[in-house]
Amino acid sequence: xxxxxxxxxxxxxxxxxxxxxxxxxxxxxxxxxxxxxxxxxxxxxxxxxxxxxxxxxxxxxxxxxxxxxxxxxxxxxxxxxxxxxxxxxxxxxxxxxxxxxxxxxxxxxxxxxxxxxxxxxxxxxxxxxxxxxxxxxxxxxxxxxxxxxxxxxxxxxxxxxxxxxxxxxxxxxxxxxxxxxxxxxxxxxxxxxxxxxxxxxxxxxxxxxxxxxxxxxxxxxxxxxxxxxx
Length: 230
What we know:
The protein is α+β, with helices and mostly antiparallel strands.
């Protein structure tokens, strides 16, 4: 690792604010350039007054994000919510037989849907096809935001199911309509284009092994849900 080097005298081992040569020059020449700059810097610092810490998360004074009790509480709260959602999601997958190997089907259009939605359905059908196979799930979007109406941060069309189609194309689509009781705040689940095409037998143990430990523990998406990701 490179040693720090002073930008004034270029001697390694210290920086400009602690430079002994610069301090000596200021003492010996109180009206010189470096002395005037030092006085101006001191005046500006005095005019600003004492620095008050403000938390970048809760915006309160006196602490920072690292020691924020509100953030600590919110992390725990969302972790609990995610674990509750994950349990409901797993139960639904087992009951519906929805997992890798199951088929997902593009819903048939009806006269009650708007022209825009009818066009969207036909566009999906043309590009992908009407039937695809589930190959996994997108854990990043699979969290309690899909059923947490008070602090829903994601857009309504966020996909959660990884699907491969006979033409070789793959995409991520929202949960099918049958998951409306789990993803209660996802309009794309309740009113979306997709439904369960055919089921498979879901072995709970093998099914869970396809998810990372952080997702199963509820902490995988917490930073994103709290707006802490860049």
